[in-house]
């Protein structure tokens, strides 16, 4: 389907680390990220806008409306390793297409519009995530940039930012360039199969689950795998596996809460050596703040007990924390009315995945719309949202702005 939306998506998915295999790998502050930034700025210019960018990789472009108060719309352009081409990008290109339609029809929106393209939302290369959202809300201190490190190389986020060609640019914030923003709307693929299975066109997100991330390091004692008796070993991988295997059952008392270990690093990672150290991630999510804290505390306490019983050492480093966020019922209601007027099938739902919207929701009225993910697949090369759903979302946004 040859539409502006699909052309933008196909062009953006080419900005990926070619040697990383299938899908899209576009981590923040990499050559691929910079290529995507330059492309987005060029496309925004072709829409007749004047885009701005800052040293954090945030891109904005303003369209003056009938009144100065602004609706900010957009999402993120970074990806996970070997991810899909719709995650994040769907929210950017649907916003761009709504602007394209306004330009094409010569209409002036009833409020001003600020498109935003955010950077480092995923928190993959660096352990925190939601970088642009935190910066625009004034939540990111310069001191913290020195302590946020590339989880593989140890390079600090501050070092990466200092290499940016936009180092001297003004930081984009809600008190600066975005001072007229009163509302924020993020359109995103669902990253689940509820809409696809139910045949709905649009999901109206009422709550976004909170996230707590931790990085646990178990330090045992390495030795030769053949000459060391089984009795008395302090195998860090065995100890870590005891912790990891206990986590699923620990979530049962907390309805709808989830806990995931998705990244493991084993040292020395040799077939003939007892693992001396294992680092693994822990991602805990819940729509209820009380559940989020209690479950995280329970798992960390269990991990300490297991490690201590094995005579090993445990270090727990705190990563991302984003609290659960309710969305604006007023804004959702207006969007729902627009969708129904278009004959779209809607569903009220919650989001288990984290998004920039939950950070921004503390500062301006915020809403999220979900688009169906085929088969519920996301964060994978097979991720797919049909062109018709993308176009419907752009059309909905265009009609909402009139």
The first-to-last residue Cα distance is 27 Å
CATH topology of the largest domain: Aminopeptidase
- What is the overall silhouette? globular
**Radius of gyration over all CA atoms, rounded:** 22 Å
Overall structural domain count = 2
Count of alpha and pi helical runs: 12
Report the top-level CATH class of the largest domain.
Alpha Beta
Instruction: Kindly report the average pLDDT value.
Output: 95
Multimeric status of the protein: single chain
Structural class: alpha/beta
Strand portion, in percent? 15-25%
Q: What is the number of strand segments?
A: 14
Share of helix, binned: 25-40%
The string of secondary-structure elements, in order, is HHEEEHEHHHEHEEHEEEHEEHEHEH
Low-confidence stretches: none
In CATH, the homologous superfamily of the largest domain goes by the name Zn peptidases
Walkthrough of the structure:
- With about 400 residues, the protein is an alpha/beta fold.
- The chain folds into two domains: about 5-210 and about 325-400, Zn peptidases (Aminopeptidase); about 210-320, Alpha-Beta Plaits (2-Layer Sandwich), CATH 3.30.70.
- About 35% of the residues lie in helices and about 20% in strands.
- It contains twelve helices and 14 strands.
- The strands form two sheets. Strands 1, 2, 3, 4, 5, 6, 12, 13 and 14 form a nine-stranded mixed sheet that branches.
- Strand 1 (about 50-55) and strand 2 form a beta hairpin.
